């Protein structure tokens, strides 16, 4: 499983490795710089040949130290290298200082904050083949200063100006650890309290980070800043060291969701044992709204059926029966007028999960359904629940119902629904990020899950899933898993159905949310551009075949 680290966790890992005598800080810096150069050559093999020109922007900390290593290695490779420094060499941390001194023995260091850059300087800057951003890494604690040359990179004027100097190929911008300006913990850009900052943050072409990706590489704007992420091994995975970190208080891990292929238990659950019958695979009950509004529930039902629930029933008001019957075949139908009717339905112990919210409505009938589903009407048995869309609106209005949430529930809010359910948490996320580590979507979702006492899946291209006990995963639709066409009406309804279907099949709420979100993105990628929500469930057979389910 890919663990995503916060900056504090990364520091703890580095400190533990150094304290154990396994490695020195200087050696780690050398490996980091070497890893960056190897990543550059792997990305652009043509740069291995001949001599090219690089501009390396170094900052005052160890990120700058990595930059000095890169400058030295490129120069040894035969490149022409110009180095700019932001900061006072006298105040550099020791390892960065050593690499600064090594570079000074080989070439010049210019002060990046000097105000005397000439037009010629800038022309040379633009015409470099490679610009390395080693200004700030995980130590960025406040908004990055607006430095003249860096600012040009930040504003993307760099590329816009190419016509001006008549150069065809844009310089390749490589960020060490992270594009400077981004907070490694949140993926947010640090800005002044009044929101001042560059108009358009710059994006590197390649970001090279060390040991493990950081949470911010996958959240919010992080992927847009990083563009392409390469993780370099710097030899920190020694067993002794892992032992020491297991008990570290900061080890409250955040992981990327993973393919069921990499998750033995998920694979076992997805595979159907021979000889079972439909009830072996669970019964999912999807509640629908009135006629004319049933499409969302039908999408969820189709999703639950395709993901492998043995039976799926849509429960709707009597007046919507004809409409639903005309549109559903394998999915069964049952009239459910109100909360009392749902109580009666749930007495059938074979219904493993209820999904409610898509197209449900927000009136008294629907509030009664939410109450019944939550067992808040005094029923014997509280079902497992997926609460989406209108059910979330009802929960945000009725504190008594919110208080009835329990550990077998999954809430699947998008940003607007999240803000209605957890206004104070959303507010914290909305204030400009001025200090690192900034409050992140991971922090917000963990806090929401702890408050709700159930799993919360906070949607987006960076979907975050958290359980009340602190477990947390990010389902990223970025980098090689980008699927922007997933942002289409109704796709969230299908996701609710996938999760309900998986819960019916015996997945825990957290695992169902993680695997459901993972499959959702895979289905979108399987179909490609042009996708509409109806296509998503139809892609599951191909995805399952590929996985060997
Ligand atoms: N951890 C590891 O395992 C490894 C880490 N490695 C590398 O080290 C990097 C982390 O280094 P780091 O901790 O020295 O922090 P870094 O990002 O260089 O910045 C700190 C400096 O910037 C300053 N500063 C901050 N914000 C500022 C602002 N807005 N405006 C102006 N100044 C600002 C801050 O000043 P201060 O806040 O102390 O006044 C301090 O001087 C990491 O990203 C990776 O590249 C690798 O070598 C391999 C192994
Ligand atoms: N840019 C994006 N890339 C990938 N997935 C996205 C993106 N934007 C939204 N999504 C996903 O699309 C789905 C949209 O759900 P939702 O907002 O509830 O819409 P609807 O109510 O129309 O179904 C969510 O699963 C969300 O994570
Ligand atoms: K950087």
TrEMBL record:
Species of the source: Paragemmobacter ruber
EC number: 4.2.1.136, 5.1.99.6
Signal peptide: none
Gene that produces this protein: nnrE
Amino-acid positions noted as binding (6S)-NADPHX in the UniProt annotation, renumbered to this chain: 62-66, 177, 296, 359, 414, 493
Coiled-coil region: none
InterPro entries recorded: Carbohydrate_kinase_pred_CS, CARKD, Nnr, Ribokinase-like, YjeF_N_dom, YjeF_N_dom_sf
Binding site for K(+): 63, 133, 180
Co-factor note (free text): Binds 1 potassium ion per subunit.
Record PROSITE patterns: YJEF_C_2 (PS01050), YJEF_C_3 (PS51383), YJEF_N (PS51385)
Record-annotated YjeF N-terminal domain positions: 10-242
Oligomeric form and interacting partners: Homotetramer.
Protein name: Bifunctional NAD(P)H-hydrate repair enzyme
Biological role stated in the UniProt entry: Bifunctional enzyme that catalyzes the epimerization of the S- and R-forms of NAD(P)HX and the dehydration of the S-form of NAD(P)HX at the expense of ADP, which is converted to AMP. This allows the repair of both epimers of NAD(P)HX, a damaged form of NAD(P)H that is a result of enzymatic or heat-dependent hydration.
Keyword check for ATP-binding: yes
YjeF C-terminal domain: residues covered: 261-547
Protein family (similarity comment): In the C-terminal section; belongs to the NnrD/CARKD family. Belongs to the NnrE/AIBP family.
